[in-house]
Amino acid sequence: MRMLLMIIIGVMVASILSIPVIKPFIQGSGKSETPPPVIQQPEPK
């Protein structure tokens, strides 16, 4: 029973610590403030 409680607390702490790490990736993929880099192609002659 005590082992299960320790695992639950560990998962909760890990999820709380991972929120600031994952949050920028979620915001970046949703709407990027910088436009994607435009690949410049040479003009046909």
Topology:
Layout: H1 2-30
Protein name: Exopeptide
Organism: Rhizobium laguerreae
How does this structure look, described?
It comes from Rhizobium laguerreae. This is Exopeptide. With 45 residues, this protein is mostly helical. The protein is built from 1 helix and no strands. It is rod-shaped and about 75 Å long. The relative contact order is 0.08. The model has no long low-confidence stretch (mean pLDDT 78).
Highlighted features:
single chain; rod-shaped; 45 residues; mainly alpha
Q: Count of helical segments?
A: 1
Main sheet overview: none
- What proportion of the residues is helical, as a percent range? 55-70%
What is the alpha-carbon Rg in Å? 22 Å
Distance between the first and last residues' Cα: 76 Å
Return the average pLDDT rounded to an integer.
Answer: 78
Q: In oligomeric terms, what are we looking at?
A: single chain
Low-confidence stretches: none
Going by helix content, strand content and strand pairing, the class is mainly alpha
Compute the number of strand runs: 0
What coarse outline follows from CA principal-axis ratios? rod-shaped
Write the H/E string, N to C. Answer: H
State which percent range the strand residues make up.
under 5%
